[in-house]
Specification:
mainly alpha
Length: 237
């Protein structure tokens, strides 16, 4: 191959990236397998069946993960109490391994059936309007209601795959970071305040989500202002 032919090959656009990235075009088709796998992930990550007394509870991710057991006669689980420093950090990291493995396993299987493509179709108009991020973030958006860890893992994976930009990840992270795990933390950590609250739990959760979206848009506006002041500058890892 001559030097001229090599240069021509280098100038050709990488079509494979455009096909791989559903956010780059919404003209792709989604099969019924994609929609079914997306529905499964939404049910799994949303926590809808977390308090169900029926076999459907097995579809809930946190119920599926279960809990660590207790040593005989002990009242605490694997992490115990009173830990600090690097060893406490290691103990916490160990508890995150099952969450990461199961969540990423479900994602990889469902992604092979087209779940992310379906998510892009379904959430594109919603998330684009609310925060200016692509619909491909839909699964992470849903999972962040019940688990901040799963949402963060999925968001970082989307960035590594090149499905979202650095700015989109920053905006989405701003949404997730404030009031993370909204439903679980409001019901569990905020349980002592529920009886004396002047508002129903549902209204409180909606208010938290509204403030989260507001915070994400403040970051979104800042990024636009920053890029106007510093054209050509991009944020990287």
């Amino acid at each position: 191959m001559s030097e001229k032919e090599i240069k021509n090959e280098m100038k050709k656009p990488d079509i494979s990236k455009e096909i791989k990235n559903p956010a780059s075009s919404m003209d792709y088709k989604v099969t019924w397998k994609g929609w079914v796998s997306l529905l499964f992930l939404i049910l799994c990550f949303s926590g809808i069946f977390s308090h169900s007394d029926t076999p459907l509870r097995a579809l809930d991710l946190m119920s599926f993960l279960g809990q660590f057991g207790h040593a005989e006669g002990a009242k605490v689980s694997l992490r115990g109490t009173g830990g600090f420093g690097a060893r406490e950090g290691l103990a916490f990291a160990l508890t995150m391994i099952p969450v990461t493995m199961v969540a990423m396993g479900f994602l990889e299987v469902c992604q092979s059936y087209g779940a992310l493509n379906a998510a892009g179709k379904l959430f594109q108009p919603i998330l684009k309007f609310l925060m200016g991020i692509p619909g491909i973030c839909g699964l992470a958006f849903v999972s962040s209601f019940t688990s901040s860890d799963v949402g963060a893992i999925m968001t970082q994976d989307l960035r590594k795959e090149g499905l979202i930009t650095d700015d989109e990840r920053t905006i989405f992270a701003a949404y997730q970071y404030a009031g993370s795990g909204t439903i679980n933390n409001t019901i569990a950590a905020g349980a002592p305040l529920v009886p004396i609250s002047l508002l129903p739990v549902g209204v409180i959760i909606l208010l938290i989500i509204f403030v989260k979206i507001l915070g994400a848009n403040i970051v979104r506006l800042y990024l636009k202002w920053y890029h106007k002041r510093h054209p050509g500058v991009t944020f990287t890892d």
